[in-house]
Amino acid sequence: MSSGLEDAHSPTWHRWPGEGAVRGGLSVWLCRDAEPDAAAAIAICRDCLSDEELARMTRFRFPALRQQFAIAHGFVRHVLSLFHPQVAPRDWRFDTGAQGKPEVATGLPRVGFNLSHATGLVALAVAYDETGVFSGDPVGVDVEQATRNIGPGIARRYFAPEEVTDLEALPEPEQRDRFFALWSLKESYIKATGYGLSMPLDSFSFAFDAPGCVSFRRHPDRLPPEFATDHFTPVFWQTMLSSPAGERHSLALCTGAGTLQDDAITVFETVPGRAVRRLDPVWDRRPAET
Ligand SMILES: CC(C)(COP(=O)(O)OP(=O)(O)OC[C@H]1O[C@@H](n2cnc3c(N)ncnc32)[C@H](O)[C@@H]1OP(=O)(O)O)[C@@H](O)C(=O)NCCC(=O)NCCS
């Protein structure tokens, strides 16, 4: 069922930034922090962090988490500078929305982004309109390491009742992938809205009725009135990525239907500041209408 990185069409690495890497629409940028080139990438990323980011980084006790933080945040800066080369990676500044969603600070070129990190993989989604009329399209991304243990009762605790019923009706070998597909899809939505975990996770649900598609339903009766979610119609993509080392990650993306000039998704694997290659993952789930 899954394809992921290994099935990409003979992707060739190009020197950063890679020809044709920047185009309008939704792009996803992946970085594996255990690559052989990781030490060089970490140095490149750490060099452009702000004082505040460096302070956050040093608060992590474990070197692996400090490394992941440096890669993730330096990665955001390097990728944003691909879209707006007049801003150097170290010159990006960020504000946060009411619920903590980072966005590019006022006064800098507008480009929508969202970051996710899991053990072994960082994913960055960028919504960009090359005509320059980009108006803050919602974008959310989530990666989850799909090989980790699932504690008992987690689905019942976090998912909507409809999702739990569908999940538990599946043959057991299929339940793990469905669990992580659901988890990452749900997070991509709460991250696109910017509400994060303040939003009740049972106030919306996903169904997987048609092969290869995912459909989304809101349950307004479970959503307190202070949550405004109907200003965009979300669309979703999800796939399971496999690495040559045998890792598996569920990647899910959410954006607003029809809000971008070209909503085709391009996916790049990178060694930040050094190399980039275009991937062509097969999406396990995509919107019914695409
Ligand atoms: C925002 C949130 C949803 C993301 O959490 P996460 O899955 O742990 O982490 P991810 O790596 O995917 O995303 C973290 C990044 O999202 C961004 N982010 C933070 N708040 C955000 C918000 N309100 N909306 C969108 N993005 C946000 C930040 O860039 C953050 O990276 P940083 O901490 O290095 O700055 C968070 O509220 C959370 O705590 N989640 C817990 C997960 C959970 O229990 N889920 C239930 C099952 S569905």
Task: Write up this protein.
The longest helix is centred in the middle third of the chain and has 22 residues, at 172-193. This protein has helices spanning 38-46, 51-58, 63-83, 154-158, 161-169, 172-193; strands at 14-15, 25-31, 94-96, 102-104, 112-118, 121-128, 139-145, 204-207, 215-218, 234-242, 248-256, 265-271, 275-279. The protein is of the alpha+beta class. It has one domain (4-279): Ribosomal Protein L22, Chain A. A hairpin with a 2-residue loop joins strand 5 (112-118) and strand 6 (121-128). Helix 1 packs across helix 3 and helix 2 (51-58) packs antiparallel against helix 3. The strands form 4 sheets. It has a 6-stranded mixed beta sheet, with helices on one face. Strands 7-11-10 form a 3-stranded antiparallel beta sheet, covered by helices on one side. The protein binds coenzyme A. Residues 72, 99-102, 114-117, 142, 158, 183, 186-187, 190-191, 194, 196-197, 201 line the site of coenzyme A (COA).
Write the element-wise H/E pattern from the N-terminal end onward: EEHHHEEEEEHHHEEEEEE
CATH class: Alpha Beta
Number of helices: 6
CATH topology: Ribosomal Protein L22, Chain A
List segments where confidence is low: pLDDT < 50 over at least 5 consecutive residues: 1-9
Q: What number of domains?
A: 1
Average pLDDT over all residues? 86
Instruction: Output the strand order for the largest sheet.
Output: 1-13-12-2-6-5
Which overall shape is indicated by the principal axes computed on the Cα atoms?
Answer: globular
CATH architecture verdict: Alpha-Beta Complex
The molecules bound to the chains, other than polymers, are: coenzyme A
Total beta strands: 13
Name the structural class: alpha+beta
Distance between the termini: 19 Å
Rg, alpha carbons: 18 Å
Strand content: 25-35%
